[in-house]
Amino acid sequence: MTPSTLQARSFLRWQPVAALRPAMTAPWWQWVASLDSLTARLVAAGGSRPFRVRLLQQGVGVPRRDEARALGLAPRRLAWLREVALCVDERPWVVARSVAALTDLQGQHLERLGERSLGSWLFRQPDLVRGPMFATAQTPAFVSRLCAPDATGLWARRSVLSHGGLSLLVQEGFLSTMADDLGLATR
Q: CA-to-CA distance for 165 and 108, rounded, in angstroms?
């Protein structure tokens, strides 16, 4: 990775999703701007192909500055971090990174999710509220780091989802493997 690439990633611009509408094809808009469960959409799009959540990393760590800011956390404060690949037919279609304040996790038992979908749990909560959706055409660092060797990041989105006292930043990067398997244009 070149120094200019590293510098560009450090200034990643998340924009309100509507601001990127002119740059997206209609099929991508339906994926990136959707407010329902991404897990349910991936399962439906996969048809008879098996869906799987591959847990890549989960534990306590320091969130990126922009992640802490999105959650209203003080810089360098420890948080719960979870990174997964959402796979259809064992091919990663989406990589996701979720961040929550440790104080918000009491009683939630999210560490027990393992290879179950966070979205399938969240969207069963009757008081779930999704904050504004933001997106980027740049590839966030977590997407580049978590991508399969045959995949690249295309679009990424993120929002804060709240349930009870829990605020959770959910970030999802859509991969070229998904575009290839669904016959979507790359942008």
A: 10
Helix (H) or strand (E) holding 38: helix 38-46
Residue 182 and residue 176 in contact, taking contact as beta carbons nearer than 8 Å? no
Which amino acid type is present at position 32? V
DSSP summary character for residue 89: T
Q: Are 91 and 181 in contact (CB under 8 A)?
A: yes
The radius of gyration of the chain's CA atoms, rounded to the nearest angstrom, is 16
**Contact in structure between 6 and 88 (CB atoms under 8 Å):** no
Query: What are the DSSP calls for 124-154, one per residue?
Result: T-TT-EE---EEESS--HHHHHH--TT--EE
Tokens of 85: 């690949």
d(CA 148, CA 178): 12
List the beta strands (DSSP E) in 3-152.
15-16, 51-61, 79-88, 91-101, 129-130, 134-136
Q: What is the greatest pairwise CA distance in the chain?
A: 46
Query: End-to-end CA distance of the chain, in Å?
Result: 23
Quick: pLDDT tens for 79-128. Answer: 999 999 999 999 999 999 999 998 887 767 777 888 888 888 888 888 99
Q: Quick one: how far is CA 5 from the chain centroid?
A: 21
pTM here?
0.88
Cα 48–chain centre separation: 24
